[in-house]
Amino acid sequence: MKVQELCVRRGLTLAVAESCTGGLLGGSLTALPGSSGYFLGGIIAYSNRLKTDLLNVPADLLESEGAVSRSVAEIMAREVTVVTGADCGISVTGVAGPSGGTVDKPVGTVWIGIAVPAGTISRLYHFSGHRDEVREQAVAAALGLFLEIAGETV
Fold first, then answer.
1. Is the Cβ–Cβ distance between 29 and 102 less than 8 Å?
2. pTM of the shown model
3. Residue 29 and residue 53 in contact, taking contact as beta carbons nearer than 8 Å
4. Cα(43)–Cα(66) distance, integer angstroms
């Protein structure tokens, strides 16, 4: 089952909050005809300031845990549903590279958050390859995780 099929069958609306994928996730969803039937839109919050201003991620949390963290991914996923009125939200925050990686969060580290009416979860991924490959893997993982979580709980 694909995201579009799941959302249409269950009458769910979806929105996305993206950082390292920079709109690639929303672009993949809107590439399919009929996406307006379930996809409400997205927020590309690349900077920490926009994560705070648009998605209500606390600045002190960004300072203490960093933008690439479980807490931030889950807040982004949950808040995009609040801002857009969607039933479900997907967030992606990570280090796509080639720079920006650290010992604790090397290039390819990506947190994906999923918010559904039953709750919010997140999962950590470690992708490999160059920037485009990391971003593409993150989109595929986000869609797969959404299908897994929404398919089981909604």
1. no
2. 0.96
3. no
4. 19
Q: For tokens 């991924």, what's the residue?
A: 125
In this predicted structure, the answer to whether residue 130 has a pLDDT above a threshold of 80 is yes
Cβ atoms of 68 and 105 closer than 8 Å: yes
As a whole number of angstroms, the distance between CA 101 and CA 104 comes to 8
| Type of residue numbered 117 | P
Q: Supply the mean pLDDT for the chain.
A: 96
Given a contact cutoff of 8 angstroms between Cβ atoms, the answer to whether 128 and 98 are in contact is no
Cβ atoms 14, 86 nearer than 8 A: yes
The amino acid present at 74, given as its one-letter code, is: E
Contact predicate 105/70, CB 8 Å: no
How would you label 115-143 residue by residue, b for 16+ Cβ within 10 Å and e otherwise? bbeeebbbbebebeeeeeebbbbbbebbb
CA distances from 100 to 10, 35, 64, 104 (A): 39, 33, 17, 11
Question: How far is 58 from 82, CA to CA, in rounded Å?
Answer: 16
For 19-73, the pLDDT digits (tens) are 999 999 999 999 999 999 999 999 999 999 999 999 999 999 999 999 999 999 9
To which H or E segment does residue 20 belong? none
